[in-house]
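Dear colleagues,

For the upcoming journal club I promised to circulate an example of a predicted protein-ligand complex. I picked one with adenosine-5'-triphosphate because it came up in last month's discussion. The inputs are reproduced below in full, followed by the predicted structure.
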Amino acid sequence: MSKTDTSEKLMEKIVSLCKRRGFVFQSSEIYGGLGACYDYGPLGVELKNNIKTAWWNAMTREHENIAGIDAAIMMHPKTWEASGHVQSFSDPMIDDKTSKIRYRADHLIEGYIKQLEKKGKTEEAKRVNDEFVKAQNSDDMTKALYELIIKEQIKSPDSGAFNWTEVRQFNLMFSTKLGAVADEAGIVYLRPETAQGIFVNFHTVRESARMKIPFGIAQIGKAFRNEIVKGNFIFRMIEFEQMEMQYFVKPGTQLDAFEMWKETRMNWHIERLGIKPENLVWYQHEKLAHYADAAFDIKYKFPFGTEEIEGIHSRTDFDLRRHQEYSGKNMMYSDTETKEKYIPYVIETSSGCDRNFLMVLCDAYTEQIEDGEPHVILKLKPELAPVKAGIFPLTKKDGLPEIAEKLYHDLKRHFKVQYDDAGSIGKRYYRQDETGTPFCFTIDHDTLNDQTVTVRYRDTGNQERLNLSQVKAFLTEKLS
Ligand code: ATP
């Protein structure tokens, strides 16, 4: 089996597990589904909430100078003129006239460069890559990308045809109408990022939370993008959730803050989400937005390729300055000690919750062959696991269920736990392994005599005895 076959199979297995065990479902599936929209099921919502809590705690509660907000999805339309989204939040698209399939022009060229590299044509790949970088930086990027595709005679990946339209820019923002009168003035957008809700609240948060520079504002919320190219399960969706933090600093100090946040965010993925460090890589943007002075992405080695999960960007004073210009409101910060006045610079950390979710699943997915059968174990960090413990009476008689039920009721107010008395104990362990439950407690006949239960560890299968009265303290310690 080739590497790609294995990777494809792995992705198929993860998607199937997600559906079978209630992590993620295709949205409105009974109607045939809606492209690139997904619903989180009973276990999925637990895992997703745990990821969000891990982020929220690390980014707000553990920093006395970062406050959280939850801004509205719809904002005054001028917000998006100021941010530049109305004018330029678009992707360069090109259509294959033969197959009618639409591609992102930049992805097409990247794919072509990868093909050249695969064929060992390193020099040629380098030459095309240099021209690609030049095209992306040119004043008329759309035209330059088109010319490169034509010059290199890049063929359509699906039909093999060389029958392209021009490259055109498609705006990614969804719009809708506000109020009863459907005219231009009533157009509002579904936010394509949560960041702008933070920028427009710069002063309200600063004043109400009594913040002094440097300080940050954090937010978790839905964002919407009319992505033409969808796919890779929940990796690229049209409705998704972002976890963003904007950190306001004094101009001139931004690069130190940038380095600090780069390190902090990479560590968070490793320590708080438990991602294997070798699966995370840094990517430095070669092409910077005109207002940015540094930009790196954290990428994860997904089965379908190494792709972005988070961006860490130094955005200068661009956003606040533009809001000052478009709203006519003062966005300056006055330092009461030094008496200096300035528009703060911003370091942003912008992560996709759904991509983090997919990364966590891919990283935790493990197969072990047991009795000739593949045995799936989701080796999730216990803090992230949707269910923390399974509670099993060994049999449905001899008073064992009563003890197990009591334990279940005692624990359920503190932890997400599951009671299961169906099937053999081995099957019950397996059901919990497959969804990442780190511990299982079994009540057996010894419990009747000595008040102890068996605790079984998911990753090793090791078992030990524990006093019934110790179970809550055991879980508290393991999950802290
Ligand atoms: P890409 O290049 O993959 O489209 P991006 O650079 O446009 O991503 P940003 O605008 O930096 O992404 O958004 C910040 C984060 O939001 C990304 O790192 C990603 O985790 C998440 N994100 C962006 N677009 C989507 C999407 N369509 N579906 C799911 N998550 C997304």
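Two points we might discuss: The longest helix spans residues 42-61. Residues 79 and 196 are 7 Å apart (CA to CA).

See you all on Thursday,
B. R.
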